[in-house]
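User: I'll paste a sequence; please echo it back and then give the predicted structure.

Assistant: Echoing your sequence first, then the prediction.
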Amino acid sequence: MTIRENQFLTNARDIEQWLRGHRVTEYMIYSHPIYTNVVEVFADCDLSYQDLSSIPVKFYYIQGDFNISYNRLSDLTFSPLLIEKNFFCQNNLLTSLEEGPDTVKGSYICSNNNIENLMHLPSQVNGSFYFMNNPKLLPYTHKSFKEIKEMNQIQKDQRSLSLAVGQPLVNRNMNYKI
């Protein structure tokens, strides 16, 4: 099956054919309140080295690892909401973590991309969070996932306060040590 650039599959038969063609065998397709024909995978889902420019099916839950590394992905649209093990998305063209998983019970690896900031982090990562070789993320180097989440919350709070007061809140001397 040939998929056009950024084409998303909604027909269950097309989704099944695409999954089988990408060696995903232990899955279930079902209707979800928001999406028609979402996919749950009951094993590891390895879509690495597939030259994907987009994820053409809506994954919802992965019982194992979800690996989309070494593709041409520029966003994480249709990534699963929940991954029981590790999430690998390194070596793509990602600029943001938006639309990425909400919960990763293992490690989250997004190294070697062009990620511009760490907004849109998942609410939970139980393992390690790796983001090396993303040039714009150097200020976050050697910070834990918890520290990064807290830094993001401080930045959000500053923006909210700035909007409420009507003036920009700038403090170049703010120290984010935790």
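The longest helix spans residues 145-165. Confidence is low (pLDDT under 50) at residues 164-178.
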